[in-house]
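#struct-help
A.M.: can someone run this one for me? Single chain, 117 residues.
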Amino acid sequence: MEKLVCVAHNKAVTNTEIIAKYFARSHNEIIHALRDLKRDCGATFSKENFIEQGSNDLHWITCAGFLILSGLFMGSRDARFKIIFFDAFAKAQEEISDSKHNIPQTVRDELSSLHAI
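D.P.: on it. Structure tokens below:
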């Protein structure tokens, strides 16, 4: 099973492609909704919780951002997926609290760069 939430920049995050997949929506639909939310939520909240990843419209989404974005999804199936995501966010947050993720951000960025090679 695909990991729904991971740790990036010392935050528990998911991404817009995963959200689109699990909520049976197109990535373009998620991005369109996200653009409206970013405007409505303001620059500070958006910058912290909807993190752009390059030019392909992929965004990392924090738990707070997911809470706002997933509020647009209605229905019993959507409610079940929200619970699954919230559980995944809680587990990722526990990982952040563990010492294995408490390394300086600059070192973590360097390790990510090496992993990309």
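A.M.: thanks! Residues 6-116 form one domain.
D.P.: also worth noting: Strands lie at 6-8, 11-15, 50-52, 59-62.
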